[in-house]
Amino acid sequence: MWRQLLDNGRSAFNDHWPQSLLVPAAVGVGSILVCWKLCGSKRKTIEIGDGWWGPGERPSLQSEDTSVRPFRIAVSDAEIKDLHERLDRTRFSSPLEDSQFHYGFNSTHLKKVLSYWRNDFDIHKQIDHLNIYPHYKTTIEGLEVHFIHVKPPQLAPGKKARPLLMVHGWPGSFYEFYRIIPLLTEPEKHGLNPDLSFEVICPSIPGFGFSEASHKKGFNTVAAARIFYKLMLRLGFKEFYLQGGDWGSAIATNLSQMKPEAVKGLHLNVVFLENGSLGMFISVLLGRYVPWLVGFTREDVRRLFPYLEKNLYAILRESGYFHLQATKPDTVGSALNDSPAGLAAYILEKFSTWTDSSFRELEDGGLERKYTMDHLLTNVLIYWLTGSITSSMRFYKENIVRGMGDTPQAKTGVYVPTGIAAFPCDIMHVPQSWIKMKYKNIVTYTFMPSGGHFASFEEPGLLAKDIQHFVSRVEKK
Q1: In whole numbers, what is the pLDDT of the chain averaged over residues?
Q2: Annotated catalytic, 307?
Q3: Given 109, 246, 466, 469, which residue is catalytic?
Q4: 443 and 477 in contact (C-beta within 8 Å)?
Q5: pLDDT band at 6 (very low <50, low <70, confident <90, very high)
Q6: 3-class DSSP state for residue 427?
């Protein structure tokens, strides 16, 4: 069969391309490639632009306060009283028998979670825990931008920490990085390479947590990337490393496309490809049977196939929230912002099935297999205290626009050194052969042994080790 297909293809090629044209055509193509190689040294970037996201008209440039101000998270007794009263008034829906997490958050288990939040969760203790790292705010493009900045407590003589900007996603927060920060700032205490320590900066995306939400339409990943680049300059960093997953991946990628000269390396645990291609379609058709022909490894095949079940159906199962948030986020946001019970169910359901899709089969959603209830509810508490669930959901509408494949960021390659950590239980597996279509300088691609979507929160040790591995490879090159 294969011989016949090749013979047919050769015959069709010869019919349409007479031999007399083959040599000139080859010379022409060769000339184009040489010219591209010689003339293409100036790689395309996306415009950095500028913006104003504060209320009203933009004031004069001199009026923006560029100071970096210490910030401390606090909660009042009135806020705690209001939360407890709302939890006490929760009206539960009746559960279905034998439904586990197939219909979303199991309402029987939700009662247990809310009971813990109301009676056993020590809010003051968790606020103190949030404040163990230094918090700051600074004003950029009219918004109060919140971030934590953690330096190694001490460095050996002659050693220096590498600046690392880590960007979270939805429905996470800067708190996702609390378990990985000590591994990166004090690696020797955790059995990691003591020669690779980091100075970690974790901002809150505007509209998430303690960063002010945009007052205007259109605030997207490119705007966030520009703001975070300005933040790093304000902190004195002209070059730095980047790490991100979920929206953090898109923001870090945009920053790498915008200012590649500032990015020493880009490490991602989630990859988004805006454009499909004929090559990707063919690789799906052939990859299960002749993986070597389309650049798949055995592990790619294991993670991708059966394709409909592991990808298309999985995305359909998990993307209901996506359609809501990309179209009319304020409607559902109004309900979640008013109900701590609804907010907890909406957010924690993602920490169940995005950590491992098989957790749908469990009555408790497997929530405490990788996290503690204090971890989970502290993240929810950040959204509740700041009232930021609606503004965080708007980020989908601002980024999911018609003709996404025609945006500058979709058309621009990424040429900075890139490392990919592919976690097996993430929503969708993206093979390296696909990633290369956009990310042109992949230094490391690691099939991680375990873990899902919230890598830094769930598998901090594995992620920290892979970040170190990537950085060491970059610096050796």
Answers
A1: 90
A2: no
A3: 246
A4: yes
A5: very low
A6: coil
pLDDT at 314: 84
Would you say 140 and 231 are in contact if contact means Cβ atoms under 8 Å apart? yes
Is 453 noted as a catalytic residue in this protein?
yes
pLDDT at 329 over 70: yes
Contact (Cβ atoms closer than 8 angstroms) between residue 299 and residue 448? no
Catalytic-labelled residue, pool 396, 439, 466, 469: 396
146: helix, strand or coil: strand
Residues 90, 338: Cα–Cα separation, whole Å: 11
* 153, 185 Cβ separation under 8 angstroms: yes
- DSSP for 291-330 reads GGGGT--HHHHHHH-SHIIIIIHHHHHH-HHHHHHHH-HH
Q: CB of 443 within 8 A of CB of 162?
A: no
Angle between helices 373-386 and 123-130 (to 10 degrees): 80
Q: pLDDT tens digit string along 221-241?
A: 999 999 999 999 999 999 999
**How confident is the model over 58-96, as pLDDT tens digits?**
887 667 889 999 999 999 999 999 999 999 999 999 989
- Mode of pairing for the β-strands spanning 418-422 and 240-244: unpaired
Residue matched to tokens 């190689």: 37
Q: Is-catalytic flag, 396?
A: yes
Alpha carbon distance 385, 349 (integer Å): 20
b/e per residue, 95-116, with b = 16+ CB within 10 A?
Answer: eeeeebbeebbbbebbeebbee
Selection from 169, 194, 184 nearest residue 241 by Cα: 184
pTM: 0.89
Rounded distance, CA 373 to CA 368, Å?
A: 7
The DSSP code for 163 is: E
Task: Phi first, then psi: give them for residue 420, nearest 5 degrees.
Answer: -120, 130
Residue 143's SS3 state is strand
- What's the pLDDT tens digit per position in 183-211? 999 999 999 999 999 999 999 999 999 99
Catalytic residue among 146, 453, 466, 469: 453
What's the pLDDT tens digit per position in 90-140? 999 998 999 999 999 999 999 999 999 999 999 999 999 999 999 999 999
